[in-house]
Amino acid sequence: MNNKNTIGIGVIGMGFMGRAFAQICNQLPDVALVGVSDAMENIGQTAAQQFSTNFYADSTALINAPDVHAVIISTPEDAHLDPCVAALALNKSVLVEKPIADTTANAQKILAAAEQSKGVLMVGHSLRFSTSYATIKQFVDEGRVGAVQYIQTRRLNGKAAQDRLKGRCSLPVFLGVHDYDIARWIAGSEPIRVYAESQFGVLQSSGYNIEDSNWAMITFANGVLAVCETGWILPNGHPAGADQVLVVQGSEGRVELELVKQSILLSTESGASYPDTSFMPRVDGELRGGFVHEVERFVASIQMGSTPPVTGRDGTIALQIAEAVIQSASSHTPVQM
Fold it and tell me: What is the Cα gyration radius of the chain?
C-alpha cells in the first residue's frame, strides 16, 4: 500500500459472499485487499490467486497483520464471535455478515468488545443498501405514505439452499433477520411483542431438522404491525429460486416492492430467469449494486470516524427478534420483547 490513506482490508471466509467482498475491495479506490483466509486451504489459496492477494491459513494471523486496518467476516454465523472480538481488541474495524452471531449471547460479547474498541463495528444487513429498499425508506421518511400502519414482507428461497447449508441454521436466524431488521428500520420503533408459527415436514424428510416456513407478527412500540413470511422450500424449477416482497401500508398511501423480477426477464432454451440488478449485478467486469454500496459505507465510516449505517446494536436486535420468533413458534404463545 503506497498511499498512507489507503485502508487495508482482510476478508475472512471465501464462500460466495467472501469472494464478492474480495472483488469489491479490489475495485474500490483507497482500499487494498491485503489478504484472505478460509478454513479450507484449497479454497483460500484459489481465492488468493484469483484476487492477487495473500492467503492466510490462520485468520488470527490475517487479523494481526500490521497492514490490515479492517476485516470483513463472511464465515458461517457460528464462526463470527472469535474473529470479531480479536479484531476489535486490536482497534481494527469489522464488517460482519448478518446475522451478527449465532446467538444473542454471542452478539452481546461482540458488542462488549466494540464498546472497548476504537474500531468501527458494522453488521452487513444488505437490504438497507439496496436502492429499492432504501427508496421505500426514503418515501416513508418523507411522509409520502402518511403514518405507517403495517408492513408485510415475504422472503422465500428454494430447496436447493440446503445443498449448501445442510440444515445448519434455523429459518428465522438465517433468512428472517433480513426482514425483521427492515421492518424495524421502516417502522422507526422498537419491537415489543412477537407471535409466530412454523411449519415442518418437507426438509425434515431430507434429514434437516429445520423449518419449512414461518409466519411472524411483530408489534412495535409505536403501534406499527409487521407480518413477515419466510420459507425455503420453493421447487427447484422456480424461475428465480427466490420470492421477495415488501409492502408498506400508510394512512395516506401504500408502496409495494416485488424485488426479484425487477422488470427484467431472461428466457433461453434452458429456461427463464430474473437477472439481479439490485445487489450484485456485474457490469463491464465489475460488481455494482447494494453490496458495493455497503462496503463503501463501511469504508466511509472508518475514514470519517462516524457511526456506521447498521450498528452492532441493530444487528443484535434483529437476532433477538429471530430468537423470539423461534420461541413463540415453539410455545405457540406471544413473546414479550
Answer: 20
> Do 205 and 228 sit in the same domain of this protein?
yes
Q: What residues are paired with 282 via a beta bridge?
A: 287
| Residues of the chain below pLDDT 50 | none
Which residues make Cβ contacts (< 8 Å) with residue 57, sequence separation at least 6? Answer: 37, 41, 44
Q: What is the pLDDT of residue 304?
A: 94
Q: Following DSSP, what letter does each residue of 297-310 receive, concatenated?
A: HHHHHHHHT---SS
56 burial via Cβ count (<10 Å: 0-12, 13-18, 19+): buried
Of 119, 152, 185, which marks where a domain is finished? 119
Q: What is the DSSP letter of 155?
A: E
The answer to whether the CB of 146 falls within 8 A of the CB of 120 is no
Residue with the three cell numbers 436486535: 317
Q: What angle do CA 117, 87, 84 make, to 5 degrees?
A: 95
Which pLDDT score is estimated for 4?
A: 62
Spatial strand order in the sheet of 31-37: 54-56, 31-37, 7-12, 70-73, 93-97, 121-124
Look up the pTM and report it: 0.93
Specify if 300 maps to a domain. no
